[in-house]
Amino acid sequence: MSEVIVHEYGVGDVVAQAEYTLTRDSLVRYAGASGDFNAIHYRDDIAAEVGLPGVLAHGMLTMGLSIQPVVDWLGDPTLVGAYQVRFTRPVVVDPVDGVHLTVVAKIGQLDDEAGTARIDLTTTVDGETVLGKAQVRVTLP
Amino acid sequence: MNPDLISREFEKTSPYVVGREKVREFSRAVFSSSLVNFSVEAAREAGFADVVAPPTFPIVVQELTFAQLLAEEDAGIELTHVVHGEQRFDYTRPIVAGDELTAQLTIASVKTLGGNAMVVAESVIEDAAGEHVVTAVSTLVVRGDA
């Protein structure tokens, strides 16, 4: 008989959440740190030229910050098995006000025998989701 | 968009040495508050050789394989026409400062949808011992309009 791990989690539970404000400074910082110097992330004129509604946050910056609350909750980086997102809506960063993002991490699926879970992330700007199918495969702490 | 990319063999990238300050810089940029991303002491206490890179750090190494893809003259891909559609990472272990990483690119699929093409680029990232660290998979949408 296999042992079933007893833990405190249930499907639908919110395990972590956080709020972030991105400014143009954040984009410049991410560009330097990541090496992604695509000008649509810092030049209004070029963003407009290619038909964008404004300077956009790097998709990988949104992806990178969205998993941070989960990493904090897990407390151990080796527990992250896989992470995926779809970039579904551009995140426009106002030069003065920046942009406000909210991340909510919920248990989407549990495998009690394996002690693993799928964490579903909802990242929103003004109530609209900007990532689709944002999922983290984790080993439960 | 060239469908022959699927059978193409790309060379492994030259080793990328993960620097401690690079890890800290990247960690700040993605709003990390994990101590193991910044403090060598905290990382060693947690059993790592050095500071630990955040989960999306492999994109920095994968970027080297995107450069290989864009450099293929017959690929038909121009950076200004590329939109990042999806991203996935499958981890064997976290990246830590001091790692020497290489990436091997394969094009898993090329699909044409209307005037656009969807390219799935998979980069297998290994350490100096040849052990798997992480596989990074990107879906790139190449716009055929502009």
From TrEMBL, chain A:
It comes from the Bacteria. This is MaoC/PaaZ C-terminal domain-containing protein. It holds the Pfam family MaoC_dehydratas. Gene3D superfamilies: Hotdog Thioesterase (3.10.129.10). Residues 14-109 form the MaoC-like domain. Belongs to the enoyl-CoA hydratase/isomerase family.
